[in-house]
Amino acid sequence: MTAPIVVDDGALAGVVCTAVEGGVSYWCRVSRYQWKEEAGRLRAASARLHPSERLVGFDGVLPVHELTPEVVRVGLDRIAAVEPGGAGALDWNSEDVERVRRACAEDPELPDLDAGLADAIVQVGLFGKVLFS
After folding, report:
1. How far apart are CA 64 and CA 83, in angstroms?
2. Is the dihedral of CA 34, 116, 86, 123 positive or negative?
3. Quick one: DSSP state of residue 111?
4. Non-local CB neighbours of 43 within 8 Å, separated by 6+ positions
């Protein structure tokens, strides 16, 4: 069994911001993006994600999604549940799954999580796997 990923609400909101500001724009359009800081720390963030008409070759129907820290939590929980070497269940590579796990273990505020990883976490949270890469 794999270890749970433990991060605080500010870190979850940070993943929302990182994904919105740099990770998800190739597969969706963002609206209603907002964030909240308290005492100089990020505390909350949310956005609405609209499927992009640029998704060539994707036959599925993508509804509008609300991106919240809870979506990030779901994504992290799904990543934590993947057994070593089992990242294929997420349609994602094992190296990136381990990068997310290491980033969370090293600093639960996730300061070094890049936009690509944030995007993948969001996709796993919304769709159960990485659909767009």
Report:
1. 31
2. positive
3. T
4. 9, 10, 13, 36, 37
pLDDT in tens, the chain (133 residues): 467 777 888 889 999 999 999 889 888 889 999 989 888 888 889 999 987 766 655 666 668 899 999 999 999 999 888 877 666 777 777 788 888 888 888 877 777 788 999 999 999 999 998 888 7
Length of the chain: 133
Q: Rounded to two decimals, what is the model's pTM?
A: 0.86
Give the single-character DSSP code of 45.
E
For residue 34, count other CB atoms closer than 10 A to its CB: 10
Beta-carbon count within 10 A of 88 CB: 11
Q: What are the start-end ranges of the H helices in the chain?
A: 9-18, 69-81, 94-106, 115-127
Domain boundaries, the chain: 9-50+62-127
At 111, which amino acid appears?
P
**51 is written with which tokens?**
């499927």
